[in-house]
Write a structure and sequence with these properties.
It comes from Prunus yedoensis var. nudiflora. Keywords: Repeat. The chain has a domain at 1-114: Alpha Horseshoe (Serine Threonine Protein Phosphatase 5, Tetratricopeptide repeat). It is built from 18 helices and no strands. The chain has helices at residues 6-15, 20-29, 36-49, 52-65, 71-83, 87-95, 102-111, 118-130, 134-143, 149-161, 165-177, 184-197, 200-212, 220-232, 236-245, 247-250, 260-269, 272-280. Helix 8 (118-130) packs antiparallel against helix 9 (134-143), helix 9 packs antiparallel against helix 10 and helix 12 runs antiparallel to helix 13 (200-212). The longest helix has 14 residues, at 36-49. The N and C termini lie far apart (74 Å).
Length: 283
């Protein structure tokens, strides 16, 4: 397997937890040097199988090779020792960190058996998403044992913020399958995703579902998303109809501004009465 790169080896180590140590040794014999992601996958496998001796050996190797400067490796070691029920070692790794990130605190708190809480998990998801680390957001979400409405909404919003509309829709479907009720923020993300993907019928269905099934009162932002969705799809008469039916929401600029191009299209195609409603709120 001398054609394998560190990425190939790391992928195999992360997937095959039973043979992770064997694969790691084979990688070294193959002359491929590991990276921090390799150790994260390897330490995770060791943690699950509770291989204490091997875990200590890998920890020692990380010390010698300078990998303890990598926060993801240290966080994995904190979790590993916690799973070994060796909290003094877990705390020692934590205390030796030069900079303690939120994820490090979460790892330690979880190891001590304290409840991190759904709000903290959601805040962590949101923090990573805003930093552009969608992979870290995904990892925190996958490692959250009891995924609350906060966590689901946070990960859906994270993907929406990164423009990954397909993942937004898939996650929303999973959320419903798990029996977790979405809130108004969840629907804002999913409606925006439907708008960008041109999924008008699905968007309209979800909008009505939000009102009828979940009894959520649409906000100006929800209406704005719907009009934008219809405008993008060229359904200007439907957009005009929605504006007319909810003209009080438009009045005094209570609704968020639409995409400028769609607003122009609606104005060009609307009747004079609807233009007056859109611009002034007066019927």
């Amino acid at each position: 397997m001398n054609d394998c790169t560190v990425v190939s080896w790391t992928t195999m180590i992360s997937i095959d937890k039973e043979d992770a140590i064997f694969l790691y040794n084979e990688m070294r014999l193959d002359g491929v040097y590991p990276n921090d992601v390799t150790f994260v996958g390897l330490i995770h496998a060791i943690s699950i199988r509770k291989l204490v001796e091997e875990g200590e050996m890998i920890h020692g190797f990380c010390i010698k090779t300078g990998f303890l400067s990598k926060h993801d490796v240290c966080n994995s070691l904190i979790t590993m020792y916690a799973k070994f029920e060796s909290m003094p070692d877990s705390i020692k790794v934590f205390e030796e960190l030069n900079c303690r990130e939120i994820i490090s605190w979460i790892a330690l708190i979880s190891g001590l058996g304290l409840e991190t809480g759904p709000i903290i998990a959601a805040a962590l998801l949101d923090m990573y998403a805003k930093q552009g680390s969608i992979c870290e957001s995904k990892r925190v979400f996958s490692e959250t044992p009891h995924k609350s409405q906060f966590a689901w909404t946070a990960i859906i919003s994270a993907y929406a913020g990164h423009g990954d509309n397909d993942s937004v829709i898939e996650l929303f479907k999973e959320m419903e399958k798990e029996g977790v009720k979405p809130d108004s923020v969840t629907f804002l993300s999913i409606l925006a995703a439907c708008s960008r993907n041109g999924m008008v019928e699905m968007g309209r269905h979800l909008f009505h579902s939000m009102v009828k099934e979940y009894h959520i009162e649409p906000s100006p932002q929800h209406y704005s998303s719907m009009v934008d969705m219809l405008g993008r799809a060229g359904k200007l008469e439907k957009a005009e109809e929605l504006i007319r039916e909810n003209r009080n929401i438009w009045f005094h600029g209570f609704i968020e501004p639409l995409s400028f191009s769609w607003t122009k299209s609606i104005l060009r195609s609307s009747s004079q009465d609807s233009k007056r409603i859109l611009l002034t709120g007066v019927d």
